[in-house]
């Protein structure tokens, strides 16, 4: 089936036959397999969306195709010509007409738009760089395709949307036939997003092939002719927009795409025991707002309750965690821990009230990597170390107990935290935080991200035990299966708001996963 | 993508000290680095001597024998080392909290100024039991005030400590010269009135050298910093702030508060060096007294790998190079030996990634 489209809103026909990209690639980083036979086939003149959860390997796949990252093995054809994966670099990719606009931009901020455009391929007149011709050509090109750019503007001072436009125009100026955009909307406002999606459709209509990396299904629905779903480094399937639908929006089965993204191959977990009906609230948020990322969050966690926060990364979950821990300034609203107002309290004051915080990034937020396991297990824990002079014997005893309880390996308390594997590092953070005396409330941000299965089980056991002992637990996770396995209640965040909630029996339904998945991706309102 | 603190992306020069502070998995590696760096710099300086037509072996041997056989030179080594040890401690304390205190130089001058002002203001009959602590506190307090200001500017206003401390070096030496001219220098000289005799620290002898009992103060400072750094929650806090500020913040440590306290302590240690110069040696304010000690402190901190005991040893080595250089002045230009002190720093910087690689390979 081809994507030729008929109907009331005619779409451009894919210009020619044949594939722009045919790739099957492997990539392994030390200790981590990113891609294993990930397949991508993109037809000429189409908008092809590449979707998947965080860590699925989307960015790596397109970076290999664009020659930014080198693939380990596999096959790659660009515009029908096979290329050597081992020798494919950015220069070769650019010559073959592959343009890429990266996730966070790749502009030198103090240079002008045109200087950035010619960086590395400067046109020379004698010994001097000749910019006028390029600038004029970029202005003209931008005008023609409806992406006005000021070639002489300083790249670092442009709004993110304008900087991105400039990168697109620069890529097209260099003759890109294939334009890859890696999560281009992550940094844009909704109006800029609409503008960008319009542009992509227009470029495809003029014959440019577009690969759009995203995890937002509403964008996919608005713009894509085909959709490839990646999960854990493998291609799950490719969807093609049906030719029948009158409206573009109806031509992709987004519910099926959402299911493919989150995966449905795990058995349903046993339901957790419910908290006491009259349990007091240990964590209350009302109207909490942080910058533009978090909008009027109301949330309540009762003693003994495990509440999950689901959502695709980047929808305000990170800010929610930081706000509760006191690591970011609130724009407004109130936070109460065990009944005490802490909206403006320092992190230490919140910890003193019985908060435990498992930060989402163990490498930067959770651990002091250069210190020993024992010191990490006691960091900031005056109850273990003593006030001024450190009680070495108690620190080691405490470490020994946590190492045994969580099976931290290797079990040497004096070894550096840096030398531990990701799962064991995470166990150290869990051990420190969940062994706090008088635990009232646990904030666990992505507690099992990038952690092996054995560690996941132990970490979940400790979180359940904390709840059973009377603490309220808030788990922020991009992994829906984890939340379904752990939580009494799951709320879904989208664009800085809580957009839906499922509780109790409704969580154990067969349909709970796809309903939450749909909420996460903005396919349906609550 | 990670937030890196409140003051935005760190400029390049603040990453430079990080290159020096890659932690090794033990004192053996640190020792290897320091020894390697010293040997490398001696080799480089030897080449320079050869180029200028000197016999390096002869010069080094003369330096060693003249220093160890002449009690005066040995005393001068101790005198220099006392000041360098204190500024070295000051710089390494700050470095471990990811702050580059280039301003130890100005903090020494502030200490010298305050120590001399207070010392001369004391009545001549003040007993040592009162005069010495008062002058020591004045010296440390003045250094601490400068350090604290730099810390506050860094934490509250995001002003980079390298820039502000360079400015403070100029400001403090300007103030010292101004006050010297207006109230302290005696007719036509650049020396002020003598401090109260009770505030003088007695000399250690050594053939009439400048070495004095302030070396006890320096040894005490080494001990206290060693204890604080390795044995207390304070030391843990400042090292955690230096190596993992995000983790420290998550664990409830106030990064800003720690940085201000560390800069205050660092300034106090640098200010303490004034005891060596004013109370132990000149017994008066003098233009340029203690100059260069702050900068040598940076070398001592790097060569001593930020460990208090290492810094003390490095201070002795640097004191040896600078006094020994004078002792062989008839054999080699003293500028060549002065260059050696700079070469040492470069050699440490070069040796760290080398030893690091050896450690990874092991």
Could you explain how this protein is built, in words?
The complex is a heterodimer of chains A (526) and B (362). Chain A has 526 residues and is of the alpha/beta class. Chain A has a six-stranded mixed sheet with strand order 6-9-10-3-11-12, with helices on both faces. In chain A, strands 18-19-20-15-21-22 form a six-stranded mixed sheet, with helices on both faces. In chain A, strands 2-1-4-5 form a four-stranded antiparallel sheet, covered by helices on one side. In chain A, a hairpin with a 2-residue loop joins strand 7 (124-125) and strand 8. In chain A, helix 4 (132-144) packs across helix 5 (160-173), helix 8 packs across helix 19 and helix 15 (422-434) packs parallel to helix 16 (453-468). The radius of gyration of chain A is 25 Å and the shape is globular. The two termini of chain A are 34 Å apart. The model of chain A is unreliable at 1-16 (pLDDT under 50). With 362 residues, chain B is mainly α. Chain B folds into two domains: 25-54 and 340-362; 63-331, ABC transporter involved in vitamin B12 uptake, BtuC (Orthogonal Bundle), CATH 1.10.3470. Chain B is 74% helix and 2% strand. Chain B has helices at residues 12-20, 27-51, 56-69, 71-96, 104-121, 128-157, 161-184, 214-231, 233-243, 245-250, 255-282, 293-303, 308-327, 334-361, and strands spanning 191-194, 284-286. A two-stranded antiparallel sheet of chain B has the order 1-2. Mean pLDDT of chain B is 86; it is low at 1-25. Classes of the chains: A alpha/beta (526), B mainly alpha (362). The interface between A and B is medium-sized, with 33 and 22 residues.
CATH topology of the largest domain in chain B: ABC transporter involved in vitamin B12 uptake, BtuC
Strand order of the largest sheet of chain B: 1-2
Tell me roughly what share of residues is in helical segments of chain A: 25-40%
Q: Would you identify the CATH architecture of the largest domain in chain B? A: Orthogonal Bundle
Strand content of chain B: under 5%
Using only C-alpha atoms, the radius of gyration of chain A works out to 25 Å
N-to-C CA distance of chain A = 34 Å
């Amino acid at each position: 089936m081809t994507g030729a489209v008929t109907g009331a809103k005619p779409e451009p026909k894919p210009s020619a036959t044949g594939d722009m990209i045919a790739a099957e690639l492997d990539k392994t980083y030390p200790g981590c397999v990113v891609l294993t036979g990930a397949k991508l086939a993109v037809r000429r003149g189409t908008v092809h969306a590449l979707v998947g959860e965080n860590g699925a390997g989307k960015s790596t796949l397109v970076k290999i195709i664009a020659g930014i990252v080198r693939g380990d093995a596999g096959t790659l054809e660009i515009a029908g010509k096979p290329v050597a994966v081992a020798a494919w670099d950015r220069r070769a990719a650019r010559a073959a007409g592959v343009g890429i606009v990266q996730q966070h931009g790749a502009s030198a901020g103090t240079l002008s738009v045109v200087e950035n455009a010619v960086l590395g391929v400067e046109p020379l007149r004698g010994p001097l760089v000749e910019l006028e011709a390029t600038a004029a050509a970029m202005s003209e090109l931008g005008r023609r395709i409806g992406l006005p750019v000021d070639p002489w503007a300083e790249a670092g001072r442009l709004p993110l949307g304008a900087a991105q436009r400039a990168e697109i125009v620069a890529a097209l100026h260099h003759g890109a036939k294939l334009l890859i955009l890696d999560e281009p909307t992550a940094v844009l406002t909704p109006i800029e997003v609409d503008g960008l999606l319009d542009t992509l459709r227009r470029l495809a209509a003029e014959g440019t092939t577009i690969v759009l990396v995203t995890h937002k299904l509403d964008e996919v629905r608005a713009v894509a002719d085909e959709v490839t779903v990646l999960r854990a480094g493998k291609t799950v399937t490719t969807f093609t927009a049906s030719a029948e639908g009158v409206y573009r929006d109806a031509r992709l089965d987004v519910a099926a795409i959402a299911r493919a993204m989150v995966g449905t191959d795990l058995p349903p977990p046993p339901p957790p025991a419910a908290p006491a009906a009259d349990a007091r609230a240990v964590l209350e948020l009302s109207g909490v707002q942080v910058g533009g990322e978090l909008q009027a969050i109301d949330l309540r966690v009762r003693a003994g309750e495990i509440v999950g926060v689901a959502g695709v990364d980047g929808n305000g979950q990170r800010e929610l965690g930081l706000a509760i821990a006191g690591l970011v300034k609130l724009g407004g609203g109130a936070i109460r821990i065990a009944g005490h107002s802490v909206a403006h309290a320092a992190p230490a004051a919140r910890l003193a009230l019985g908060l435990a915080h498992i930060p989402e990034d163990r490498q930067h937020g959770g651990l002091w990597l250069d210190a020993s396991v024992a010191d990490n297990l006691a960091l900031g824990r005056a109850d273990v170390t003593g006030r001024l002079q450190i009680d070495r014997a108690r620190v080691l005893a405490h470490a020994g107990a946590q190492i045994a309880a969580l099976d931290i390996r290797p079990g040497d308390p004096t070894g550096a935290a840096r030398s531990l594997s990701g799962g064991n590092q995470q166990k150290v953070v869990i051990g420190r935080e969940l062994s706090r005396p008088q635990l009232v409330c646990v904030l666990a941000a992505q507690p099992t991200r990038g952690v092996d299965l054995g560690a996941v089980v132990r970490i979940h056991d400790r979180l359940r035990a904390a709840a059973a002992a009377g603490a309220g637990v808030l788990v922020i996770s991009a992994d829906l299966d984890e939340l379904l396995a752990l939580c009494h209640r799951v709320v879904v965040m989208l664009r800085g708001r809580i957009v839906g909630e499922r509780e109790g029996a409704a969580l154990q339904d067969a349909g709970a996963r796809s309903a939450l998945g749909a909420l996460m991706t903005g396919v349906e309102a609550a | 993508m990670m937030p890196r603190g409140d003051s935005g992306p760190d400029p390049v020069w603040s990453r430079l000290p990080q290159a020096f502070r890659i932690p090794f998995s033990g004192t053996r590696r640190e020792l290897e680095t320091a020894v390697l760096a010293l040997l490398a710099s001696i080799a480089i300086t030897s080449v320079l001597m050869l180029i200028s037509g000197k016999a390096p072996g002869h010069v080094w041997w003369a330096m060693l024998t003249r220093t160890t056989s002449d009690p005066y030179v040995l005393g001068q080594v101790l005198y220099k080392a006392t000041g360098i040890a204190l500024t070295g401690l000051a710089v390494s304390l700050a470095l471990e909290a990811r702050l580059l205190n280039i301003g130890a130089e100005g903090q020494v001058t502030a200490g010298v100024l305050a120590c001399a002002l207070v010392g001369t203001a004391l009545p001549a009959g003040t007993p040592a039991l009162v005069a010495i602590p008062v002058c020591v506190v004045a010296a440390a307090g003045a250094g601490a005030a400068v350090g604290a200001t730099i810390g506050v500017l860094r934490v509250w206003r995001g002003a980079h400590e390298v820039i502000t401390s360079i400015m403070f070096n100029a400001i403090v030496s300007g103030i010292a010269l101004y006050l010297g001219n207006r109230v302290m220098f005696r007719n036509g000289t650049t020396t002020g009135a003598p401090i109260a005799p009770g505030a003088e620290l007695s000399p250690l002898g050594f053939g009439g050298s400048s070495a004095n009992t302030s070396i006890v103060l320096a040894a005490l400072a080494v001990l206290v910093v060693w204890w604080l750094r390795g044995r207390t929650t304070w030391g843990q806090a400042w090292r955690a702030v230096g190596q993992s500020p995000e983790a420290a913040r998550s664990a409830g440590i106030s990064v800003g508060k720690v940085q201000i306290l560390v800069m205050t302590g660092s300034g106090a240690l640098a200010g303490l060096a004034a005891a060596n110069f004013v109370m132990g040696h000149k017994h008066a304010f003098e233009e340029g007294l203690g100059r260069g000690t702050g900068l040598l402190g940076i070398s001592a901190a790097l060569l001593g790998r930020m460990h208090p005991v290492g810094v003390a040893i490095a201070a002795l080595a640097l004191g040896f190079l600078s006094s020994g250089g004078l002792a062989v002045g008839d054999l080699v230009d003293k500028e060549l030996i002065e260059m050696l002190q700079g070469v040492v720093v470069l050699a440490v910087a070069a040796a760290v990634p080398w030893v690091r690689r050896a450690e990874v390979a092991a």
